Amino acid sequence: MKQVLVMPKINYSLDLPFAEQITYLKQKIRLPTETWQDIYGSAHDRAFVVAGATKAELLTDLHNAVIASAKTGMSLQQFGKEFDSIVAKHGWADLANDKEYRAWRAKTIYDTNLRMSHAAGRYNQMTRPEVLSAFPIWEYVHRTMENPRLIHKAWNGTTLYANDAWWSVHYPPQGFGCKCTVYSRPTSYANQLSESPVDEYETVKWQGKEIRTPKGVQAGFDRVPSMDWLPNLQRYPIAIAAEYVKTLSKAGVLSRMAERSQGDNQQLADYETLLQTIK
Asked: What's the rounded Cα separation, in Å, for the pair 81 and 66?
């Protein structure tokens, strides 16, 4: 009997929840921060942060609200009401008496977390071997209608193989408010392949350091939002490190990473060693 390959469904809609997106959100560690610059880039893949939220209980409620939004398809208006309740409950002084600023913060938290988690979940789907075999080409699609970034509009339609280095810093979203996305395309799109756009770089300040990023890519967004990032556990107390590794193992993240790395990942091996000692 001929074997039929069943392809996993790739989710393109931000309104429809899917398992990879929710896993990405759930596995994050809640990290108190003073400003949005306290952590950078791929650190966001393992940390749930809200600038200025330093109370554990406040972060917990915000994290749970974001996860609920992804699970249920909660609208921004619904999330805004939940956000107002959380602020009132915990007495967040900076927001309590400023309705306009509070609404802006709610929108930023909602949009950024849902879009980044959606992108991470779809990247997880799109890079599975069976999917890449059938859909080895990716197309950049510009979708921001309100206040579009002109350089993002110029990238619209860029069609490259999934393993092209350009995607390593241009996999959207490319900044706060960016709604751009990537579509998987079959081999029949090979005749529509583009040249990799040539980037101009600019230097920006970040926590007193100078960072070079491509023009059109906001600092911290020059990466692929992915579940494959692993923090250095030596920087954390053993209790936090142990709880973190148990969470990754329970979610199946470690086993999926082991399959992809084929044993060539010393940091992953260290995680698995720690997991064995705390079982």
From this structure: 13
Spatial distance between the Cα atoms of 157 and 183, rounded to a whole number of angstroms: 10
Distance in angstroms (rounded) separating the CA atoms of residues 170 and 152? 10
Which residues, in sequence order, are bridge partners of residue 200?
none
Spatial CB neighbours of 263, under 8 Å, sequence gap ≥ 6: none
> pTM of the predicted model, to two decimals?
0.74
d(CA 66, CA 161): 33
pLDDT-above-70 percentage for the chain: 74
Q: Centre a 10 Å sphere on the Cβ of residue 185 and count the other Cβ atoms it contains.
A: 19
Determine contact, residues 132/185, Cβ cutoff 8 Å: no
Concatenated DSSP letters of 236-257: S-HHHHHHHHHHHHHTTHHHHH
Q: What is the mean pLDDT of each run of 10 residues along the chain (279 residues)?
A: 44 62 89 78 83 88 96 93 92 79 93 93 88 94 86 96 91 92 95 92 81 88 71 57 64 56 58 61
d(CA 229, CA 102): 31
Give the residue among 255, 265, 243, 277 at the shortest CA–CA distance from 46. 243
Please, are residues 174 and 218 in contact by the beta-carbon 8 Å criterion?
yes
What is the rounded CA–CA span in Å between residue 57 and residue 53?
10
Q: Which of 235, 233, 229 is nearest to 277 (CA)?
A: 233
